[in-house]
Amino acid sequence: MEDPPKGHEDHPEITSRNSRYGLTLFAVYLTLYGGFMLLTVFDVQVMARPALFGVNFAIVSGVGLIVAALLLSCLYVWLCRPSRGKERGE
After folding, report:
1. 43-49 contacts at long range (C-beta below 8 A, 24 or more positions apart)
2. Potential cystine with 57: which of 2, 40, 42, 51 (Cβ 3.0-4.6 Å)?
3. Is residue 7 included in any domain, yes or no?
4. What does the H/E/C string look like for 24-65?
């Protein structure tokens, strides 16, 4: 019977690297969200302007935040994937 694959808990350097990636991408999203909130609070006129196909900037930027979250999560998964050499135990 084959041994089960080892998890990341056996490799603290991988866990540490993945944590750094996660915190960095979280900081990027937090910056985007902070900008959205600052505009919402301090410049309501900008958020009310039509931006795309007659939809106001608040809606467009809100959907943009959702898309950014999805893209950042995909980037995180891509960055944290195992390298080919480590997959085979090399």
Report:
1. none
2. 51
3. no
4. HHHHHHHHHHHHHHHHHHHCHHHHHCEEECCEEHHHHHHHHH
